[in-house]
Amino acid sequence: VWQDSHSGVLWGDRLDNNYSQYDAAAQCNTDEGKRAFAGISQKTSLPSKEDFQKANDDGIVSVLPNGGHWYWSSSVYSDNRYYAWGFYGYGGDVYDDFRHYNESVRCVSR
């Protein structure tokens, strides 16, 4: 578990499996989500688009393991509810993608 010293947000590791954006948030509080949070008992959630952007600006994204994946955020694309925002770790960019696609999940705690 890594803490962003600027925002105070705790970041867990990448979950072992990929999920659709519809299913991603629920996975944060499963056994798999708890393992990614090193077993620390925390209420976790899917990070927002803004969480990823802030973590990238603060430099924490560059020290998180498994950063080179495409991660779902909790933020749904406002122009089309079938899309949601995700974060691409290699480039530090946010993109919208079809919510049914299976992508990586990382959870946060506040």
Overview of the structural elements:
The protein contains three helices and six strands, in the order ββαααββββ. By secondary structure, the chain is an alpha+beta fold. The strands form two sheets. A three-stranded antiparallel β-sheet has the order 1-2-6, with no helix packed on it. The protein has a three-stranded antiparallel β-sheet with strand order 3-4-5. It starts with a strand and ends with a strand. The model has no long low-confidence stretch (mean pLDDT 92).
List the helices and strands and how they pair.
Blueprint (H helix, E strand, L loop, with lengths): L1 E2 L6 E5 L6 H7 L3 H6 L12 H10 L11 E7 L6 E6 L4 E6 L7 E4 L1
Antiparallel strand pairs: 1-2, 2-6, 3-4, 4-5
**Elements, N to C (H/E):** EEHHHEEEE
Gross morphology is globular
* Structure class: alpha+beta
Rg over CA atoms: 13 Å
- Oligomer kind: single chain
Number of strands: 6
What strand order characterises the main sheet? 1-2-6
Question: Biggest sheet, open or closed, and with what strands and sense?
Answer: 3 strands, antiparallel
* Share in helix: 10-25%
Taking pLDDT < 50 over at least 5 consecutive residues as the criterion, the unreliable ranges are none
